[in-house]
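Dear Dr. K.,

Following up on our conversation at the group meeting, I've run the structure prediction for DUF2065 domain-containing protein from Oryzomicrobium terrae. I'm pasting the input sequence below exactly as I used it, so you can double-check it against your construct before we proceed with anything downstream. Let me know if the numbering doesn't match what you have in your notebook.
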Amino acid sequence: MSENLLLAFALMLVLEGVLPFLAPKAWKETFSRLIQLNDGQIRFIGLTAMLVGLVLLMIFR
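The predicted structure tokens came back this morning:
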């Protein structure tokens, strides 16, 4: 179980690092737009991402 969790964390880090490595300007622009959102909008994006992730886990597991 802990090995799978570490593998998932490692994969997340790899995927999170792809955009800043390949397109740092686009990454900066994305974060500058993100700063302009209010807390409710950011929470909705986070909730949506978690739900999509859970659905994908249920489908592929």
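Two things stood out to me. The mean pLDDT is 93. Helices lie at 2-22, 24-35, 39-60.

Best regards,
J.T.
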